[in-house]
Every structure is written in C-alpha cells, then in structure tokens.
Amino acid sequence: MNDLVLAKKIKNKFVQLYNETPSMFRSPGRINLIGEHTDYNMGYVLPAAIDKVIYIAISPRKDLQCKIFAYDMNDFVECSIERIIQSDKHWANYLLGVIDQLKKAGYKFNGFNCVFGGNIPIGAGLSSSAALEAGLAFALNQIYSLNIDSLSLVKMSQKAENEFVGVNCGIMDQYINIFGKGGNVLRLDCRSLEREYFPFDFQNISIVLFDTNVSHSLANSEYNQRRNECSEGVKKIKEGYTQVKSLRDISLDMLNEFQPKLTEVVFKRCKYVIEENDRLLKACDALSGHDLKTFGALMRKTHEGLSKDYEVSCKELDFLVELVKDNPKVYGSRMMGGGFGGCTINIIEKDAVEKISKEVQDKYKKYFGIEAKIYETQISNGTNMVKVEDETL
Ligand code: GLA
Question: Of ligand 1's atoms, which has the minimum distance to the CA of residue 45?
C-alpha cells in the first residue's frame, strides 16, 4: 500500500468515527547506518528517517477527554487529560507517556480525537515506538500551538519512553524522528546534541533491511544491563580520571590502563563503544569521499563488535550477515538497533537486490523455518504535517 492510500485510510476512519476533519501528521521509522549502543554513552550515531511511517489523524476537543483509535490493532482507549495512568494496553502507553510529559512540563491543553496507523513493522527495530511518541508530541504541539521547540519535543518523547513505558532508551530514535531529512543521514553527537547532515545520494545503491522476524524477549532487560555495564566501567575509570563523565571521555589507552580493575565483560563492553565512536567518525569521512567500500568495511567491523564484544546479536542476525558478507555486490551488512532480533541493514547494488533478497529468504527459511521479510528503504523527512489530498506526500 502506498503512502497516500495509507494516509487516506487513516483519515477516512477518523471521519467515520468522529464526524469531523482531522489534521494529518506523518511520522517515520528509522534506520541507523553505524553507531550502535553509543547514544546513551554520549557518543555518535548516524541514523536516517525512512519511508515506513505512521499516520496520525487528530483534532482538538473542547473537553479534556482523549479518544485514541489504533487502526492496525482495531483497538481503542479513552481517558481524561486530568488523570493519565499506565494502561494495560501496551501500545497506549507510548502515547499516554507523551501527554504525561507535556503536563509535567506545565503545558495546558484540552483533549483530542485521534486515529493512527501505518506500516512500520512492530518489533523489527525500526522504532515504531519513537514514531508514536514523537509523532504525537509534534501533533499536539501543532494543534494546540504550544510553541515547543523541536529539541524539547525530542527530549519529552524520550522521557515518555524512559519514565512511562519503562525502557531506558537513548535519544537517537526520537531525535531522528523529528530531525530526519530526505536523502540525508544525520550524524548526531549525543553529548553536545550537535547535528550534521551527510547526503546519502548513491544512484545505484539501495539500503535494504533483512528482517529476522524474531524478537527475543530478553531485549529490554539486556538493554538495561548493557547500560549498567557501561556505567560500571565509567565509574571505575573515574577513580583515576575524575573529569570523566561518560565513555565518550575515555580513550582506548585509558581503558587498557584500567583493564586489571575491570571484569572481562565490562572491559569488552567499554572497548566496543570506544571503538564504535571512532569507526563512526571514519565512516562519515568515507561517506563524504563517496567511498562506500570503506564505509561498508566499517559496518562489518561494527557487527563483529556487537556480536562478540557487546553481545547483543543472536544466531538469526549473525546468519543473515554471514550470508551476504563476501558478496561483492554488498558493501556492508550488520545488525541494527538494540539487537536480539529485528533487522540487519545492508548496502547493496540496486541491480542485485532482487536476486540477493531471494537467496537470503530461501536460505533463512531452510535453516530456521522462518520467513525473513525484506524492506528496500528510502531515506525520508522527519515528522511533518501533511495534506492528505496532496499527491506528493
Ligand atoms: C534502541 C534505543 C536507542 C539506541 C539503540 C541502540 O533503538 O531506543 O536509543 O540505544 O537501541 O543503538
């Protein structure tokens, strides 16, 4: 289903349910080319918004009620702005968390009618959750003219996930959702929050995601554990270098000096993060020089690090990377996002995508008995308001 058809479907449902015309917002999923598990360590990331999206149809109400219909789940919640509490419906908490943050920040607004739905696969590591959070924050800011700046929208959306949903995620996903720019990847320095766009404009190249179609339940607890292991490393090294605040302030030499004081696991985690920041900077240089070969080789190193040192991969992800690793038409391949399932990201020559995808699907099915899904993505804009009649969505 193309974007316009999808948007119209959401809008029509809204009109049918509430009998009025909504404002429409398009909120994208994301990829990350390199820089994984670095955001909460104050390092660098290189994400982009993509053409898998959620549409939010919304209108203000005169009272304090919020009525939200989740199209794809055919599910509904209703609540009052005055009393925002955790819902037993998981999807609703991403939205309620945003309302909660806006209220805590002192913004005054009434309730709203809403329908949302889209095509970002859930649990595939493409940040459908950030798309909901940042998408709603953006939409409420618009329909109630709250005058919140973009960075504050990002931070409140991240906090919604941290405090209301209970996942201690970093800032990458919400940031790229708001700041994404078509045709560009974005280098974010998660310490200073400075950003720089790099064009990703290779005519004959596609960014293809191979979705393992598995999502191991460990993901959230392991994610929080990795954060703790990194903090433990920082804490130890701080004993010798008091100015250190995060792994970003630690060099490999400093880490090696402290190796005897760290457990083997903590050492490996820290080493990965420090090396990954370095790799990302090199990857951006390669991108500026249109050198995809070097860029892809760095992605491969990232996968090795995530698999062996950071230990957030799984057999399905490793298998998918292994399948294409020596293919001359594939520049780079690695697991993407939090890990323990979800997708690999692959930079592939356009004319080879179909053949490689078919091979990957066949071999994966044969080995695991699971259907791998394939998404050929385009880099798109961050969240924006759209006119649904507009043919050029
Ligand atoms: C998840 C989190 C992000 C980031 C990645 C790993 O997507 O939401 O903040 O930490 O994992 O890079």
Answer: 12
